[in-house]
Amino acid sequence: MSSKKTLLSGVKPTGRPHIGNYFGALRQFVDLQDDYQAMYMVADYHALNFIQNKEELNQSILDLTIDYLALGLDPQKSIIFKQSDVSEHTELAWIFDTITTMPYLMRAHAYKDAEAKDKEISVGTFNYPMLMAGDILLYDVDVVPVGQDQKQHVEYARDTAQKFNFIFKEEVFKLPESKIMPEVAVVPGTDGQKMSKSYGNTIGLFATLDEITKAVMSIPTDSKPITESRNPDEDNVFKLHKLFAKQDELLVLRERYQKGGMGHKESKEMLIKNIEAFIAPLREKREQLTHDMDFVLDVLKDGGKRAKVKAERKMEQVRNSIGVKLY
């Protein structure tokens, strides 16, 4: 029996990752699998709030699984599984629905954001915190890695666990803890704002050299002459250098920025070279995986079976506690 704590995280298969996603979370996922019994979920039922097209969702699920594997998630160390392969997620979410009030769900960030934008809100969007609570509580998870702005997800799971345990007078659910990801300096996009798909300012995590070049060359810069000193910390290109340049190279770059003599074209070309050196091995690994779909599907199938064993064990306990188990 492993003494390691259990960790779970999930990603919706709703778009291709960019370098901001990597430095913000995905890099830590790879590191955490050595220290925890790690479970990484392809949150395909959550994705139904955004994708309602069979072919698109099929491909998005496969793409995210391949991304996980290309980045270094190891199915020998972690359980990599598809949410929809474990029906207990939705069963538990329904049970939680019956003890949850509408005003409580109206506090959720996603609901308030949709309401503020005057969107027509689906039941799935309104109710997603209960499915997420099911995702977490189903596996006796100890820790959930989240960014500071996602802490509410874990708070909802903790509240729900406590309420269930109180109502049914049994300590069925463990209270999970948030594992706040180390603060990463905001990864700037090609327009200087935070890198985000919604801003259209991303550099893809598996981008080709041509795509990297196009993105970097589009980064806006000041119009000072090359000989003039500039503050590197206010330069959009230098902010990205901090992520990809080696420490000694970064010190030289900073000095050249401050002394004058570092042109934008040269700086961008150096950045392209460093980003390509970082991405090329990931891109190559990902390309290899696309030609071995049997392996990719086997990872999901095996992960689903392993997750299902854990989920069934917990749901037996839940059904007994609520009074529906008769035989």
Structural account:
By secondary structure, this protein is mainly α. It has 13 helices and 5 strands. A 3-stranded parallel sheet has the order 1-2-3. Strand 1 (6-11), helix 1 (19-32) and strand 2 (37-42) form a beta-alpha-beta unit. The radius of gyration is 23 Å and the shape is elongated.
Keywords:
Rossmann fold, single chain, Tyrosyl-Transfer RNA Synthetase
Question: Summarize this, please?
Answer:
The chain is mainly alpha-helical and 327 residues long. It is 54% helix and 8% strand.
Topology, element by element:
Elements: E1 6-11, H1 19-32, E2 37-42, H2 44-47, H3 54-71, E3 78-82, H4 88-97, H5 102-105, H6 109-116, H7 123-137, E4 143-146, H8 151-167, E5 177-180, H9 209-217, H10 236-244, H11 247-259, H12 264-290, H13 293-322
Parallel strand pairs: 1-2, 2-3, 4-5
Helix pairs in contact: 3-12, 4-7, 7-8, 9-12, 10-12
